Amino acid sequence: MTDLTQEQVRERIERRLAGRHRVEKTFRGLGIASIAFGILAVVILFSDIIAKGSGAFVQSAVQLEVHYDPAVLGIEQVDEESLTWANFTGVIREALRERFPEVSGRSEKRELYSLVSTGAPFKLRNRLQADPELLGRSETVWVAADDDVDTFVKSLSDSGGGFRGRTSDRMIRWIDQLLASGELKKRFNSNFFTNGDSREPEQAGIRAALVGSLLTLLVTLALSFPIGVAAAIYLEEYAPRNRWTDLIEVNINNLAAVPSIVFGLLGLAIFINFFELPRSAPLVGGLVLTLMTLPTIIISSRAALKSVPPSIREAAMGMGASRMQVVFHHVLPLAMPGMLTGTIIGMAQALGETAPLLMIGMVAFIVDVPGGVTDPATVLPVQIFLWADSPERAFVERTSAAIMVLLSFLIVMNTSAVWLRKKLERRW
Amino acid sequence: MNTMTLDAAGQTAPAQPESVEKATVDTDTRVTETVGQPFCDDAKLRMRGINVFYGETQAINDVSLDIGRNEVVAMIGPSGCGKSTFLRCINRMNDTIEGCRVEGDLTLDDEPIYGPRVDVVPLRARVGMVFQKPNPFPKSIYENVAYGPKIHGIASRRAELDEIVENSLRRAGLWNEVKDRLDQPGTGLSGGQQQRLCIARAIAVSPEVILMDEPCSALDPIATARIEELIDELRENYTIAIVTHSMQQAARVSQRTAYFHLGHLVEVNDTETVFTNPQHELTEAYITGRFG
């Protein structure tokens, strides 16, 4: 070994060189391949969801000439009570019969009536409520078509003549007539953004779930961020290192790995059964998600505090800053970006969480948009779960659309967090 | 050839006669008592029988030393001899190290530094510190200097604070270089400027003692020369204890020099005496470069 000449050494190095380059190239190739696989997966996922879900943003609507006939409605004047009892369904049916006067017979009429959504009378009611002058007069309105009609119309462009489902030949004839005359059109589906859940796909909307998610996350953020940061600061800056703090640390790390449904059971037992908080409420959902996100926030906040250079602490302490001044003037500002990153990861987890919320009743069928944290509510992922479970074909595209809304929510949240972090970040 | 270079780059070569001597010096000499004059009449800081422990290990062994008013005392010695540890006892920075225990009597103007009643906050305002690595806060130059006066509530008005900042920067010899960019980050300055900023920050609260822990070890010779000049000027108003690895620096800036060896204070004397006529053989071995 010791007797190698310089030439021999160089020769040996060169002999190995080709192999080393080859290994390097292979490794780089593997890296590129795995990134390409990831990108491909994301592209497929997004294109599939967008292709399936974009249809939900438009909705077939039928143009009807309706006459607000007091005799049909069964009311004399417009007030709160009469509106509740008024027969708007009759008005719609009359309008349909007028449009297709040739229709006769019970079953044929039933098929005719099923062209428009069962939610259509509510639209007329709202219009009359907004403008009582309409009583006794006529107007042209667009009412949502039934989901079977909608599905058929949307599938017409597909090869094979469209998905028929429960649509009969007679109905298809009427639909063709209406399409030809421009009385049946695909219009922007505002219901999807303004309504709560519904059994009728054409009436179902994401608003209630969106507001529910927002309220739940607000509760989660308001509780988990201050508690998590305070716990991290105490453990990192104040607590003595002993058996108890070691035990606490181990427990926090373990809690981060506990399956979320367990937190749901805990929430059910403690918040609902013991404290008797309302079921299905964003308040309880937020509490449960707080329990779930706290370990994440504490762990990342502690890591952020640890990464603050000790020289800064020494400098501040050497100036005679008290412990709290050291933490709040120097350590915390430097650790804040890292803490925010952890919080955002926790919040993103919380936004997508379904299982623990099922346990506390947020899986209930909620039609009304929640007005506060104690109102019954559902959240976006649970809404997706519910719609994915529904048999109507029209819910397929709504499920995908709800996923799109959830993902946009997530993207908006993460982008704002990244922006905030960039703004707070300081170099030293 | 290869083996020879390795040895030259490593510690003192074992084959050389000096090293044999060094080995004997190292093992045979027991430090029992400090040689020279560790005490002075007009002492600002009085330290008696200081022992410092890190857990079970003893880092400082029965050290007694006085630091006189308006005096610069240099502390020299090989790495790990405990000079920094000793320095950090004076403003109780050792409190922040887990498992560190300090025994003995330390007084600042005859007031105890350690004791159940002593609050470290006012103590550290009286005993400022400059660290080895320049460590300005990641804030503006102005904020860096104004931080001490702010937290101690020294300035009541903005104009007063401005004046303190200007005076401190002037005394640290930095004013002319930074007066037009006080709002820029202190971390953007050069190494030497950062260290002077740290000195300005320390003197902004008008401390009585300034502790300097190898303040020039991260600086180039020009910046070092400026800091040394500065230390000489600061002596008029402050008492300074400086730890240094550079014997030339100790000789240039200090009036008295203390030589530490393995946690013992071996010799304290006038700087001139230490460097020209060392009393203890360990001191002599160190200053003549036989180890360290």
UniProtKB/TrEMBL annotation, chain A:
User: SUPFAM superfamilies, per this entry?
Assistant: MetI-like
TM ranges: 30-51, 208-235, 255-275, 281-305, 326-351, 401-420
UniProt keyword DNA damage, yes or no: no
Location(s) in or outside the cell: Cell inner membrane; Cell membrane
Keywords, comma-separated and alphabetical: Cell membrane, Membrane, Transmembrane, Transmembrane helix, Transport
What protein family does this chain belong to?
Belongs to the binding-protein-dependent transport system permease family. CysTW subfamily.
Q: Which residues form the ABC transmembrane type-1 domain?
A: 210-417
What is this protein's record name? Answer: Phosphate transport system permease protein PstA
- Indicate the principal place this protein occupies in or around the cell: membrane
User: What is the topology of this protein in the membrane according to its UniProt annotation?
Assistant: Multi-pass membrane protein
What Pfam family is a match, any one?
Answer: BPD_transp_1
Organism annotation: Microbulbifer halophilus
Q: Which PANTHER family match?
A: PHOSPHATE TRANSPORT SYSTEM PERMEASE PROTEIN PSTA, PHOSPHATE TRANSPORT SYSTEM PERMEASE PROTEIN PSTA-RELATED
